[in-house]
Amino acid sequence: MRPRKSRIDGFRRVRCGGLFAAAILGGCAGVARPLPTYNAVPEFTLTDSTGAEFGSRALEGKIWIADFVFTNCSGPCPRMSSLMRQLQAALVPIPETKLISFTVDPERDTPEALAAYARRYQAQADRWYFLTGPRETLHRLKREAFLLGDVRGNLDHSTRLVLVDRRGRVRGYYSTEESSDLGRLLADVRRLARERS
User: Fold this and answer.
1) FRET partner for 147 with CA separation of 20 to 30 A, picked from 11, 107, 138, 155?
2) What is the distance between the alpha carbons of residues 141 and 143, in angstroms, rounded to a whole number?
3) In this structure, what CATH number is given to the domain that contains residue 184?
């Protein structure tokens, strides 16, 4: 059972007439409400696909987009990673934006497995990071910080993308099954990029 699902699913959706292009070009005119703040991501230390330690301090002052996947997934993960690759390309003009993919299968997703997966999706080493580590750390992040459920070995995971601001606060959830959400995510990244705090 996923915690506080209604809180996540109840986020406000901005309706812009359904045009993906309009969202990419800057969102809806006249919408000035700040993005909601759902939670804060605590400090963490994991291991990246090079085998190096990766700590949350590397993300301080950065806008980042997170997802939870596993390399042996034949279900939604390939679609999710393809969307992350599209985001990587679309966000070139905002270099402070990072992409973070956490595994939900740390026993099999070694740094070597993650490195091969990163190559498959043409991940740029300084932009998109694939992280593994102790199951309990991943579980705590997924359940308590991102509010997306458990990492308990059954490989069931959320297919949402999560937007985190420069202060480590969760600011949005986006479906990977609705094309309009990708445009909304890009527009929201641009909004955060314009914010200075």
Assistant:
1) 107
2) 6
3) 3.40.30.10
Q: Which amino acid is at 6?
A: S
| Order of all β-strands in the sheet with 39-40 | 39-40, 169-174, 161-164, 63-69, 97-103, 128-132, 45-48, 53-55
| Banded pLDDT at 4 (limits 50, 70, 90) | very low
Contact between residue 176 and residue 160 where contact means Cβ atoms under 8 Å apart: yes
- Phi, psi (rounded to 5 degrees) for 142: -65, -45
- Location of structure tokens 């999710």: 80
Query: Is the residue at 58 inside a domain?
Result: yes
126-169 pLDDT, tens digit per residue, is 999 999 999 999 999 998 999 887 666 555 667 899 999 999 99
Other residues' Cβ atoms within 10 Å of the Cβ of residue 32: 6
Amino acid at 177: E
